[in-house]
Amino acid sequence: MQIRRVIARNFRGIRHADWSLPRQRFVCLVGPGDSTKTTLLDAIALVLSPRWTVQFTDADFHRCDVSQPIVLQLLIGDLDDTMLADSAFGLDLCGLAESGQLLHDPVDGAEECVLLQLRVDEDLEAEWTVMRPGSTETTQPLTASKRKALGLFRIDERVDTHLRWGRGSALTRLTETSGASQAVTLAGRAARNAVFDASHTALQAAADTVALAASSIGGAAYTGLRPGWDPLAVASTGALLLHEGAVPLTHAGLGTRRLTSIAVQEGAALNGHVMLVDEIEQGLEPHRLLHVLHRVKQRAIGSRGQVIITTHSPSAVQALETADICVVRSTAGETTVRQVPDVVHDAQSSLRACPSAVLARKVIVGEGKTEVGMVRHLMRAWDTEQIDADQPTHAALGVALADGGGKTAPVRAKVFQDLGFSTLLLVDNDDPNFDADIATATHAGVAVIRWQAGHSTEAEITSALDIDGLSDLLQLAAELSGEDPVRDAVIAKLDRVPAPGQLSPASWLEAGHALPELQRAVAAAAGKKAWFKREDTGERLGAFVLDHWDQFKGVALGHRLADLHSFIYGDSHYYSQ
């Protein structure tokens, strides 16, 4: 079977969600924190829960508003013969047209489906039913036994559930009928006999004291009162737990327990069951994460079932195909889920190059490493100001920074904008070959910050510096690349300064060069010799900008960085500070 559609109303962080799943057996949900990814899994798990009752509280209602019921619906398709039987769902089938429209009956050309619903009103009582779209007839109850037959498996933080032979665990399903109960019965008898046969002087002395005291106050005249094992102490099969040798498996590391739990549930799952895995990366090193992703995906593809996972791991995003990924967003309680569409060109390369971007709310694409490093330092410094003002940091606002990779930067920015992310592109303005791609990105809705015409990042910075500022920038470059190479690179572009010369802008002025000539020479040397073409040196450049903010805040560079600040934090007045 496959879940075709998930509808949720008034459930926790979801005011409304209507997710039509892609017709594939493996789906990965990604998105920023609090985008309701886990809540979607919870909705699926609750509708398919095999438990007789589920406890709800007011907090399970969206904004704790119990005046509106919780309504969770699953449309199940790809039904096998067992599910189509009259004793199962055969008498309650509906149809799903190719257009996505739900039909009261499975007419020709429509897929046979069953619509399952869980409703919770203010009395907090859960009601499971089988629905018919558009019907006013009394709905059929969805019994716990029918829900159990649908075969849901859930991997989340409660991984130990499936490492023991408890009620409804995968190990119980793997065990022959009554096998676990028989083992528990025998264990109880053995424990009882072991206590009877052991010599417990202190325990027996206590029993003798009780026997004497009971007799003295008119109680029973005990003749054989002794310590023994409570026959109910191990009456539940939940007392049976997997061990590695003598060590309970619940004492193993989280990653090992999660993987073992997945393996147990895979073994117990029939061909057609649904498996949900929340935050699949928990406790796993990257190599084990990639292996389990491949394993789970291949199992899903080769079965009639379905696997739906969530992840916050960039490594997982990099490992998956774009078709596997659905982006979850939540705005004012409205949850949307969007598969990465085939029409988004270059999506695969962009997601693999910038995987963390799909885990954010906003994305800043820097043209290259210089811009990425500079912006990273600016955000750290601005975050400090935000904290001092009791305002949220960029991380709290869900802002991610991505390397555009040079010429591909506008294309990558457009990919993220097309996927529904609010995206900003920070790019040079010294190469007209970028113009067409930047125009395309702008048309798609990307916010573009571009320097003045003809300027690289280095030229934009040097164009605002006075002699002292140029001297400070050259001292930074000398610290990073060496004084002699920096001096020689600049003087090579100054025809009035004889070599070897000095690393002194003041002396170059005295030689007859105007300040704009010196600004252009320093910028050209910085670009040609790649003084700031790494992320770490880009960060140093960001620190330089803030240290010399008085020279930048009133000119083009300051205004453009104010736009960047506004995109991140929503403050449009930063340049005047």
Helix-strand category: alpha/beta
Helix content: 25-40%
* Major beta sheet summary: 14 strands, mixed
Number of domains: 4
CATH domain topology of the largest domain = Rossmann fold
CATH-wise, what's the superfamily of the largest domain? P-loop containing nucleotide triphosphate hydrolases
CATH class of the largest domain reads Alpha Beta
3D structure, described in words:
The chain has about 575 residues and is an alpha/beta fold. It has four domains: about 1-160 and about 265-340, P-loop containing nucleotide triphosphate hydrolases (Rossmann fold, 3-Layer(aba) Sandwich); about 165-240, no CATH class; about 360-450, Rossmann fold (3-Layer(aba) Sandwich); about 455-575, no CATH class. Helices cover about 40% and strands about 20% of the residues. The chain has 21 helices and 20 strands. The strands form three sheets. Strands 1, 2, 3, 4, 5, 6, 7, 8, 9, 10, 13, 14, 15 and 16 form a 14-stranded mixed beta sheet that branches. It has a four-stranded parallel beta sheet with strand order 18-17-19-20, with helices on both faces. Strand 19, helix 13 and strand 20 form a beta-alpha-beta unit. Helix 11 (about 370-390) crosses helix 19 (about 535-545) and helix 15 runs parallel beside helix 18. The protein starts with a strand and ends in an 8-residue tail after the last helix.
